[in-house]
UniProtKB/TrEMBL annotation:
It comes from Bifidobacterium catulorum. It comes from the Bacteria. One of its GO terms (molecular function) is DNA binding. This is HTH cro/C1-type domain-containing protein. InterPro entries: Lambda_DNA-bd_dom_sf (IPR010982).
Amino acid sequence: MDIIEYAKTVADNVAKAMESADLSVLATSEKTGIARTTLNRRLENPGISPFTVLELAQISSATGVPLDVLTKASERSALAGKGVE
């Protein structure tokens, strides 16, 4: 898996974690302190503007999904059984 595919997988994991926590982009932005526009950019264009480690830690805290789950390369196996499906 190349770095762009990995960034896309991480963004997909973040989107699923937000959905599982019933958090919109705006609500996630408010809970994490990440600007709404930045969060949208990271979700929509992860190959160009990937999430930073700090942002992922903030999202982990806001969603309750462990950081290692958000960063798993295999999104399907990473999220299975973690309440994010």
